[in-house]
Amino acid sequence: MAERLGVKHCVAVSSCTSGLTMVLRALGLAGEVIVPSFTFFATGHAVRWNGLRPVFADCDPDTWNVDPADVERKITERTSALLVVHLYGNPCDVEALTRLATRYRLKLVFDGAHAFGSRYRGRPIGQFGDAEVFSLSPTKLLVAGEGGLVTTDDATLAQAIRGMRNYGDTGAYDPDWLGMNARMTEFNAALGLAGLSMVEEKVRRRNQIAQMYTDLLSPLPGLRFQSVHPEDVNTYKDYSVHVTPEQFGLTRDELAAGLLAENIETKKYFYPPLHMQKLYRAFHDPTRNDLAQTEHVTGGILSLPIYESLPDSTIENVADAIWHLARYAAARKEPSLSGRHYHAAVRS
Ligand SMILES: Cc1ncc(COP(=O)(O)O)c(C=O)c1O
Question: Is 234 in the pocket of ligand 1 (CB under 6 A)?
Fold first, then answer.
C-alpha cells in the first residue's frame, strides 16, 4: 500500500475511526483541533476520545470541503492541529491547509475515509500532511469488510501507530503506549488486497455516473453540484446534489420523499452537520453565525444512488423522476408535497 500510494509508511488498522483516534494521540496534541462541521461524526469522535476540543470551520460553497480562510480565522493559541476531510473523496485544498499548518506550527491530519483512489494535482491522496487515514469499511471503493489505513512519511509516527494498534506493545511486553486492540485482521486484509485491483475501474465508473447525473440534472433550476478541481480526481464515494427550494420548487426532504415513492432511496450525507448534533452542540456558540455555509449546504444536501454496477438506465430513471417531481412542483406552485400526493398526481 505504501508503494502504491507513494508514501514511506502505511499501517493497517481496524478502522478509520481507530486510526484517526490513535494518530491524534500519537501526535501528543493538547487543546483545540479544528475540524469541518460538514463531515461524518467519526471525525469529531476521534477528537473527543482524545479529550481535545473540536472547533468547527465552515465549508466552501462550491467544493463543500473545509474553507481554509475560515480555518485560519478559527486558529487561536490553543489550536494544536487541523483534522480535515476529503469530502466524498473530493480532495480538499491541500496546499492552503499545508501552508496554514506550517505557518502556525500545527499538526495536519487528513481524514481520507472516502478518498482511497483520489488524487490531488495528480498525486495520490495518502501523501499529505502528518498523516492521512483511509476507511476500508463497506460503502467505500476499497472494502476490507472493516479496516483502515494510516499513511505517513514520519517513521516515529508510524512506529507509534504500530505499537498502539497492539495494546501499545512493540514487543518488549512492557507497553510504550496506552494502546488498544486496533489491528486489521488477516481475513480483512485478504479481502482488501483482493479488492485492490478493482479500485481504478470503480473510480472511473463512479466519475462516469457522476457526470451523467450532472449532465442530466444541470438544466433544472435550483440544483447545485459539488465542484472538483480539473486536475484532481474525486472517488465519488457519494454523489450529492444541493437543493435550493425557492428555485427548485421542493425542499430537499420533499424531493427525497417523492423519490422514495418511486422506490428510489436517497441519503442526506451529512445532515445534520456536527455542530447541530447533541454530542457537539456544546462546542459551538449558536449566536455566532460563522457556519452559515455549512448550514446552507447541508440543509439542502441529497445523496443519490451511486455504485459501480448501477446501470445507465437506472441513472436515467432517477434523473427522470427528479425532472417529473420538479415539473409537478412547478405546475402546482405550492411548496409542500408528500410522496403519496406525488404518486396520486403522477398516476392520474
Ligand atoms: C468522513 C469519515 N470519517 C471517518 C469514518 C469512519 O470510518 P470507519 O467506519 O472505517 O471507522 C467515516 C465512515 O464512513 C467517514 O465518512
Answer: no
Is the distance from CB of 2 to CB of 12 less than 8 angstroms?
no
Mutation to probe ligand 1, out of 13, 15, 17 (largest number of atoms < 8 A from CB): 17
Contacts of 76 (CB under 8 A, 6+ apart): 32, 55
Given the CA of residue 46, which atom of ligand 1 is nearest to it?
A: 4
> Which pLDDT score is estimated for 335?
47
Q: Show the domains of the chain with their CATH numbers.
A: 2-196 (3.40.640.10), 199-347 (3.90.1150.10)
Angstrom distance (rounded) from CA 187 to CA 146:
10
Determine the Cα–Cα distance for residues 257 and 342; give it in Å rounded to an integer: 9
Q: Whose CA is nearest to atom 8 of ligand 1?
A: 16
Q: DSSP labels for 265-296?
A: --B-TT-S-GGGSTTTGGGS-TTS-TTHHHHH
Give CA–CA dist 46/89, Å, rounded: 19
Q: Whose CA is nearest to atom 12 of ligand 1?
A: 113
Per-residue pLDDT of 267-292, as tens digits, reads 999 999 999 999 999 999 888 879 99
H-state helical runs in 66-196: 68-74, 94-103, 155-164, 186-196
Q: What are the residue ranges of helices labelled H in 107-185?
A: 155-164
- DSSP-derived pairing of the beta strands 9-13 and 107-111: unpaired
pLDDT, one tens digit per residue, over 41-90 is: 999 999 999 999 999 999 999 999 999 999 999 999 999 999 999 999 99
**Cis-peptide into 221, omega within 30 deg:** no
Q: Is 113 in the pocket of ligand 1 (CB under 6 A)?
A: yes
Ligand 1 lined by 65 (C-beta under 6 Å): no
Instruction: Tell me the three cell numbers of residue 235.
Output: 472517488
Question: Confidence band (pLDDT; 50, 70, 90) for 345?
Answer: very low
